[in-house]
């Protein structure tokens, strides 16, 4: 299976930048909770953070598949099934 080390530097940099934005969102949400902000506001920010994480996950899977197909060696069906299952079930 493809590891992130096999992705090109630009893709890895973009993924890290997006992850750092999500990290900033998490810190902001923690601050909101510490400040006692409205529950609805916190939930909206959590939803936005979850959407960003989901989008990052899709981006990583897409990059992995592109890398596999560019190499001419698609992943074995069992590995592809594991990846899709992890995405659909949130890693469970």
From TrEMBL:
Domain of life: Bacteria
GO molecular function: DNA binding; metal ion binding
A Gene Ontology BP annotation from the UniProt entry: negative regulation of DNA-templated transcription
Pfam entry (one): Trns_repr_metal
Coiled-coil region: none
Family to which this protein belongs: Belongs to the FrmR/RcnR family.
Name of the protein in its database record: Transcriptional regulator
